[in-house]
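note to self — DONT lose this again. spent like an hour looking for the file last time. sequence + predicted structure for the chain T wanted, 155 res
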Amino acid sequence: MTLEEVLVQKPAERDLCNGQTLEDALVSARDNESLTVGVYECAKVMNLDPDSVSFCVLAVDEQFECDIALQIHFTLIQSFCFDNDISIVRVGDAKRLSAIVGDDKAEQLEDAHCVLITNPAEGSWEDPALEKLHVFCEESRGLNDWLPEISLPGR
C-alpha cells in the first residue's frame, strides 16, 4: 500500500487495516519469541537493551484509567520511546491484547498493559506488518499525533 493509498482511505478503513496489521505483527513476534509482556518486564528490557526494542504497545481500558501508578509507568515508557525513536501505539482493549499475545491460552496474562516487540540479536526476522506499523507511526507523528490509538479487530 502506497502513501497515497493510505491517505485516501477512510478513517474507519484505515483503523481496521492498522488493527489487523498490529494483530499480525504481534502474532508474528509471538511465534518468533520476540515479545516482552508486562509493564515491569518491558521496563527491564528497555533499561538493559534499548536497541533491541522495535515497537511498543500500551493498552488502557476503563478499568485501569484511574490507576495512577500505571499512568506514571505509561508516561515514563512513552518518554523513553520518544527519546529512543521507538514506534509506540495505544490500544483501548487490554483483554483483547492479552488474548493475542497469550496465544489464546485459557488463562489470560494479567499484565498485558505494555507489550514490546524486540529484535533478536542474531537472525533478525523481518515482518512486513511491523514495517507498515512503523510507517503509520511516522505518518501520525507528522500529524502531531505522537501516541496514535489503534483499535484491535474483534474475534
